[in-house]
Amino acid sequence: MISSNTRKYTVVSLLVNGVSHDVMIRSADTLLYTLREQLGLTGAKYACGNGDCGACTVLVNGKPMHSCLTLAIESINDEITTIESMKHSDIRSAFVANWAIQCGYCTPGFILNCHALVNEHPDADDEIIEEWLKSNLCRCTGYQEIKDAVKSVLEANKLKAKENSNLAQ
Amino acid sequence: MQKEFRKTVGTAEQRIDAVEKSTGNVKYLGDKLITGMLHAKVATSTEAHARIKSIDTNEAWKVPGVRAIVTGDTFPFPIGPILADRPPIAFDKVRYYGEPVAIIVADYPYQAKQAASKIVVKYEKLPVVNSVEQAFQEDAPIIHEQLGQYTKIIDNVYPVPGTNIASHIKIRKGQFGQAWATCKDTITATYSFNLSDHAAMETRSATVEINPDGRVIVHSTSQSPFTIKKILNQFFNIEVGKVIVHIPMLGGAFGGKGAVQLEPLAYLASSAVGGKLVKLQYEREEDMMTAPCHIGFNATVKLGVNEEGKLLAGQYTFLIEAGAYSDQAAGITRAAALDCTGPYHIPNVWCDSYCMYTNHPYATSFRGYGHPELTFAIERTMDQLAKQLNVDPIEFRLLNAIKPGHSTPTQSVLTENNIGDTAKCMIRAKELIEWNGNQTTVTENGKIRAKGVSLFWKTSTTSTNAQAGAVLLFEPDGTVKLSCAAVEIGQGTKTILAQIAAERLKMNMKDIHVTMEVNTQYNPHQWRTVASSTTFLAGNAVLAAADDAIRQLKKIGAVALQCSENDLEVGNSRVYLRSKPTYGIDIKTICLGYKYPNGHTVGGQIIGTGVHVQRQLTEMDKDTGFGDPGPWWSVGAQAVEIEWDEQNYTYEILKAITVMDGGTIINPMTATQQMRGGIFLGLSIASGESFEFNDKGVIQNPDFRTYQLMRFGEQPKEYIVEFVETPNEDGPFGARGIGEYGVIGAASALANSLSSATKTELNKLPLTPELIWQTREVGQ
Amino acid sequence: MISFDFEYFKPESIDEAIKTFSSEWKLGKKVVYFSGGTEIITFSRGGKLTVDTVIDLKGIPECKVLEIQGDRLIIGAAVTLNQLIESNLFPLLSETTRRIADHTSRNKITIGGNLMSQLGYREGLLPLLVADAVVTVANQTKIEEIPIEKFSGSELKEGAFLTQIKVPVSNLKLPSKSIKRTRTSKVGYPIVSLAALVHEGKIRVAFSGINSLPFRSTVIESILNDKKMSDQQRIDKAITKLPSTITDDLLASKGFRQYTFGKMLIELNSVLEEKL
Fold first, then answer.
1. What does the pLDDT look like over B433-463, one tens digit per residue?
2. Which of B62, B269, B449, B566 is most buried by a 10 A CB count?
3. What are the tens digits of pLDDT across the range B99-130?
4. What does the alpha-carbon distance between residue B277 and residue B211 come to, in Å, rounded to a whole number?
5. Carries keyword Iron (chain A) (predicted)?
């Protein structure tokens, strides 16, 4: 049984971006707070604290998760991925190329959600894209450019897959 | 006009902040973590209108880690940007639910929050003024008993003591009464909507540290760094030079971060702990309930036409809901009055614009500064009057569109230069929406399609001495550092300013390094990053600085090249002979001084400086509004097509079109981003956003679960943005401001399309399925 | 930011969970079971809930089961909504839960958490009500099966918790339909939500949003199945047989709820008619 007594801080290990880190937490600390305050991974943002906006999205075992609605103590056996490890992802480049960024505050959360989406649904249609991306709010762009970015990566991946299968034949 | 060849202006240069933002590396204020920093939390009022009898802090002090508790008696003086009517922490009475009544400072945020929940305030309840209509009634409870004694910070504010009117602005142009009597047809209609929220994704925060030598170091999510200095000086008696304000990039602002609320609170908190570094960061609910919001609005519009359908007379009564304190709502009241007619030529104008106190959270500037609101009222009236006259609403608009030679409500004369081409925008929008004369169509699955249009205009209502400065500092490699105090709030302003610098210096964009953060210690003064003014003011300052640098480069170049300055040109990072461009010298060899072969050096670092200040603006006359309040009017047209489900009362937005005349467009992609984002914001507010109050004046929806923004998939299926580019001779390369404009006509175009689809006059916002149902089936 | 502290336990068996609860409770502490935890975290942050001890049920194997065993589908209480939706073992449950919160949240929200929600919506309950589901509840002395309609109507005893939901396989793939209407955004609490299936030629339907609590009413079902009446007659009669008064709140007025309820019944009828 895992237990944590909070009156004193508890030290636990978190596996973040492939590296194990010891962090000192209260059991009431959210994963968002711990990633930011203990590990300095400030790419995940606080914006609503209520799971309504997606600015705090990280991947937990590859799935998008609101880190503001997750306790750090809940995540000690999980693989956590943050924006800081996404420098070479196609979706990140696509956000830049498609003008999908204005103030940039929602961007890390969107990129992680989109990254998981294109991985999990290489054939995602508009309905799936919409279902997934409804989890993230953006106040600046009007979403068109974000949609373009996701679609460009899906198309490019399909093309790559086709080329690979042609090569294999 | 022949278009000159341009290197970068007019090109979609990639935003200089995009890569850094995509990797999560940008440090917004909340991302700056400093060990030992203390954390502040506000305890807030649980009453909307009450006298404070006592504040008990005993239980709060028992929470471990609490270092200070500050209450209103520490600083019982009212402050404000226009009318000083708001104590930073409530003193004697509270005027809205959510108003700060105490600040707790503790080691950790959770401790401060815990302690804040243990502050016990005893109140004596007062009657709550729960709507702007109630506030306007003669026997309404008075919210500010000392209204007559408040200090006016700027001139154009006219409080009416003994009422809830924080300001009354009048426009009297022509002879309204006489003209009205001669009108062939007239219409009167009333419009209203509640307060709502900016909802920038980044909540507001500020840190303050007071050094032992008296320097006050502020970091803030603010659009107004120099206003923070001004306010700390004016009200807290700190020397201007001792206030240093840092502004990182902001996670959205929309006008909501132009107000100064958190900085004085953080200052009082830091003072209470001996000047230690204190951070105050709002949670979402505080950002919605405690921080300033978007105005509420009630308007009655009367329009009259002659036999030809030309507008003869217009009367406008605006009740601008300021909430508990006037803040920028007093300025919005003025801005709404001076553009009250919308972009129409009306010879006889009568406008009473009132800034009204209520017991709701107080309002401040919101993208458009009163114009999305007045445009909703004007453009709905134009549609209804066109219908009454049985003419096409677009033809009716074109017949009355304002043009050079006409004058504005404040009798500013319009010229080819200071206003864009309204009619051209309307005609292009008409083509793009495939206008079919206001006809609705029914789709195969029984949905109703309809279109709606809106014109819009706005001047940039800055102070008459609003200005910006810019400094260009040359680096040893010949590249340039651009320093100015424009705040990057997501609009791409730093990219635009770099383009303007690169264009004038004929350098590559990559060689212009812009300081992204603002530091008032190093950056020249800038009024604020609001009012779509930065491209114009800071852009012109950059041009002046570039010209200054070019003069200096030619001077030192003449020494190096042994010729006259007058024979030299600057371009491609070189100074060269105009008549023989191959004879020249690289800027990098002269920009830190020219060194003769023997080692003697002349000159020194090239530092180009420039400022731009608004020219010949005047205050408005108290009784008639007469004056020149703005430098130029950007104009445009918007159109929306919707598909409405008559059974469920739901609708989808198919198209959102914006055609705008913003003068020369510096960067077509950032401009398009602003227009798309603008109409999206306007449609989000118009379709679903509104604060809901209970009968005690308490907001019922202070979070994103219950206050719903438009989500992915609910946005228009298609955005179309086009620009008409009528150059503005005073603007950098002919540019006018555009930042706010995309939002202005959104609500009216949507309401016009839905009114057409539902055959019901929809004069309230937000246009939820239920509101449409209520209006159509129940008749309110 | 949760301003108070609590202790956190993650037991690995039902027995361990029950014992932990009991020992903490005896110390006078306020103890809650925690599955997805989204509601506990939001309520705690917002000052609506204070607890001393949290017992996370996600380490208990029984609570993580999602498979058909014999003639029943077994769903562990800590199975997430997205796991349910993606497995699609019970299409009506997938269709209904797919409209709860947003996709990312559904990676965290569990079916057990949804059924135990303090908010009055619990849309995950609707398909279970029409499919004759039973739930298993563990308490101090035993693990017992309770019919879903009994479970939904009462609070669990102190220390007891929901471990599994069991649905007869024969009811999983019946013709069915879920409809939900919200104020504006598709993501949001329901004005009215319904889940219906056709069982032996009769419509069964359960509702949320229209009253303060979700319900299935056999009286309303018999009205809806009465083919002698017109659509409008059925709606007019059904509305008079709601278990309690129509909710009137921020999401929708009583009048608009009633209007929406009627339109949804017409839509439901037209969708299910051909399947009857």
1. 999 887 899 999 999 999 999 999 999 888 9
2. B269
3. 999 999 999 999 999 999 999 999 999 999 99
4. 9
5. yes
Which bin fits B368, alpha (ψ -120 to 50), beta or left (φ > 0)?
A: left
- Strand residue runs (E) in B360-433: 363-364
Interface contacts B/C by beta carbons within 8 Å: 60
Residue with tokens 């801080």: A9
C78 and C166 fall within a common domain? yes
Q: Is the pLDDT of residue B779 over 80?
A: no
B585, B613, B641 — which closes off a domain? B613
What is the fold, at CATH topology level, of the domain defined by A90-164? DNA polymerase; domain 1 (1.10.150)
Helices A144-168, A126-133: axis angle to 10 degrees equals: 130
- The rounded distance, in Å, linking the Cα atoms of B553 and B594 is 10
Residue C147: what pLDDT? 96
Q: What are phi and psi of B433, to 5 degrees?
A: -85, -5
Of B283, B706, B774, the CB nearest to C250: B706
Q: Is the pLDDT of residue B1 over 60?
A: no
Residue of B nearest to C258 (CA): B770
How far apart (Å, rounded) are the C-alpha atoms in residues B692 and B360? 11
Residues in CB range of C274: below 8 A, 6 or more apart: none
- pLDDT tens digits, B179-221: 999 999 999 999 999 999 999 999 999 999 999 999 999 999 9
Question: At CA B713, angle to CA B638 and CA B646, rounded to 5?
Answer: 75
The answer on pLDDT for B2 being more than 60 is no
Neighbour subunits, C (≥3 Cβ pairs < 8 A): A, B
Tell me which residue of B699, B701, B686 sits closest to B772, measured CA to CA: B686
Cβ neighbors of C202 (< 8 A, separation 6 or more) are: C221, C225
**CA-based nearest residue to B486, from B546, B441, B448, B537:** B537
Contact B9, B666 (CB under 8 A): yes
Band (B529; pLDDT cuts 50, 70, 90): very high
CB contact under 8 Å between C1 and B706, yes or no, is no
What is the rounded CA–CA span in Å between residue C230 and residue B421?
59
Residue B374 to residue B314: CA distance in whole angstroms: 13
My answer on whether B641 and B742 are in the same domain is yes
**A114 reaches B (C-beta below 8 A):** no
* C99, two tokens: 């409209």
Contacts of A73 in chain C (CB under 8 A): 8
Dist. CA A31–CA A67, nearest whole Å: 5
The DSSP bridge partners found for residue C33 are C55
Q: CB distance from C188 to chain A under 8 Å?
A: no
Angle of CA points B363, B368, B372, to nearest 5°? 90
Q: What is the CATH number of domain A10-82?
A: 3.10.20.30
C239 plus C217 within the same structural domain: yes
Phi/psi for B181 (5° steps) reads -65, -25
Q: Report how far residue B481's alpha carbon sits from residue B610's, in angstroms, rounded to the nearest whole number.
A: 14
Count of structural domains within chain B: 3
Rounded distance between C-alpha atoms, residue A28 and residue B151, angstroms = 47
**For residue B521, how many other CB atoms are within 10 A of its CB?**
12
Partners of residue B379 on adjacent β-strands? none
Whether C94 and C161 share a structural domain: yes
Amino acid sitting at position A29: D
Residue A96: phi, psi to the nearest 5?
-70, -50
pLDDT tens, residue by residue, B379-403? 999 999 999 999 999 999 999 999 9
DSSP structural state of residue B619: P
Domain containing residue B431: CATH number: 3.30.365.10
Q: Looking at this predicted complex, what is its ipTM?
A: 0.97
Residues 6+ positions from C145 with CB-CB distance below 8 Å: C134, C135, C136, C166
**Domain for residue B482, yes or no?**
yes
**Separation in Å, CA C95 to CA A65, B1, B476:** 21, 61, 65
